Amino acid sequence: MAEEILIIADESGDGVRIDKFIASQNEELSRSYIKKLIENSMVTVNGKCIKPSFQISENDSIRLEVPDKTIPDIEPENIPLDIIYEDNDIIIVNKPKNMVVHPAAGNYSGTLVNALLFHCRDNLSGINGILRPGIVHRIDKDTTGLLVVCKNDIAHRNVAEQLKEHSITRRYEAICTGVLNTDEGTVDAPIGRNINDRKKMSINPVNGKNAVTHYKVIERLNGYTHIYCVLETGRTHQIRVHMSSIRHPLLGDELYGGVRPGFSLQGQCLHAGILGLKHPTTGEYMEFSAPVPEYFERLLDRLRK
What we know:
Blueprint: E1 2-8, H1 18-25, H2 31-39, E2 43-45, E3 48-49, E4 61-67, E5 83-86, E6 90-95, H3 112-120, E7 144-150, H4 153-164, E8 169-177, E9 184-188, E10 191-193, E11 201-203, E12 212-220, E13 224-231, H5 238-245, E14 270-278, E15 285-289, H6 294-304
Parallel strand pairs: 7-14
Antiparallel strand pairs: 1-4, 2-3, 2-4, 5-6, 6-7, 8-13, 8-14, 9-12, 10-11, 12-13, 14-15
């Protein structure tokens, strides 16, 4: 068997070699491995086989067939889901803290995908392969809140296109360290993989991808600030990196400098509270919301004293 992966090239891929661009989109695949896939006609661009030297253009449709590397079966698990909305095309899920979205090496159980497989049976899109059925976008393990899951490939392609066009509304609430002096602002800084630590992202003006985060103060607290952030783009760790870059990392964020003494937190204080998109079948704009979790509310109460 082979896992099929679909990538729609954005502006950052215009003129970039195919192997380099795919590697930038999927950190699990090395450029040398991608080259072998291309040479074995397992990569197509707009339905045609290409050479490793091929340079892609914005909006190119790239398909990869990645052979099964003896990946264990992903078992359905009866894990409770907080489903905000569901129909024949999409599910809006409120993900809890400490839940990984999809399986990866060494972590093949307890994920959102395991729970979705139990809930939906075979009714999930297959575009992103056996490890990521139905998954169009993701949020970090310790970030709570809303994400959309697709039940069929038509819905998946439609929602993926909305993500690419930055037309999906994504608003997050966060608690950042320090007191912001301005009521609102924008961080416009490209984000790429940190060259010294593969687990981290960083501001990278040379090789980073365009990233824009708007933030606004909800409440100033005792040495901290409750804010909301609206994303124009959806880069890995975007809010965490951007707020750290202006010296206000998210409280509890071990990776980007937000750990403070006296707090026992499990990761960053970040919640995807509002998600809005056009329904893939009806075209109607739909917006969903989820309140911040209890730990977040308790923390706000503590910081107000």
